Amino acid sequence: MRKTLLSLSLAIMACVADVRLASSAEVRPRIRAVTVFIDIDPNNYAARIQDAQKFLAAAKDALNKAGFEGAGGRITTQPFPQFTKGMKTEDAVAFIGKLREAASKERSGLNIGAAMVHDNDDPAAASLLVEILSKVSVNANLIRPTNRAFTGMGFARQQRSSSNFPSAARMVMRTSILARSR
User: Fold this and answer.
1) What are phi and psi of 22, to 5 degrees?
2) For the sheet containing 139-145, what is the strand order?
3) What is the CATH number of the domain that holds 96?
4) Could you tell me the residue range of the domain that residue 33 belongs to?
5) The dihedral formed by the CA atoms of 142, 145, 146 and 149, expressed in degrees to the nearest 10
6) If 114 and its partner were Cys, which of 9, 59, 128, 141 is the partner (CB 3.0–4.6 Å)?
């Protein structure tokens, strides 16, 4: 009787171990986010964001049905100076707020692109980024193309002469700063 009980226990344990190994082999990684890249302007932004959100919903549904969990949505635009060019600072900040509001309807993250990408880009875009980040909850980038190494503290030291130093320091904390070679 003892041998039968021991054999039965070992058989059950072996089956449980096989089930555990088989199920762990089928585990799929969690998807953090699906990103849609869109080009917008002040006249078409609502429709473009709505189309992006439809795509994100379909992608999330397809990924979840395929066994992948998660798949939040992120919308990324072209660099924001391209669609805020010629706007006053207040108007540009208000427009970015409208973008954020439209993206929030379906709980999508919003990245408004880079402030500067090339050496000859207008540095006023970095100042505008400071204003945007202090008033609107969006993600953005500041890419500084140069042959020299770049650090956030170096940027903050450069901004000490400006009257906006505290805002500039916050911008360094809240944006991705990338070093880039020519």
Assistant:
1) -65, -40
2) 31-38, 70-77, 109-114, 139-145, 176-180
3) 3.20.70.20
4) 2-180
5) 40
6) 141
Residue written as token pair 């344990």: 13
Model-level pTM greater than 0.90? no
Q: Given CA atoms 133, 138, 89, 154 in this order, what sign does their dihedral have?
A: positive
Residue showing tokens 């505290």: 166
What tens digit of pLDDT does each residue of 84-105 get? 999 999 999 999 999 999 999 8
CA-wise closest residue to 92 among 131, 46, 44: 131
What is the CB neighbour count within 10 angstroms for residue 87?
Answer: 16
pLDDT tens for 109-167 read 999 998 888 878 888 998 999 999 999 999 998 876 665 444 443 444 344 444 443 44
d(CA 112, CA 59): 21
- Report pLDDT for 117: 82
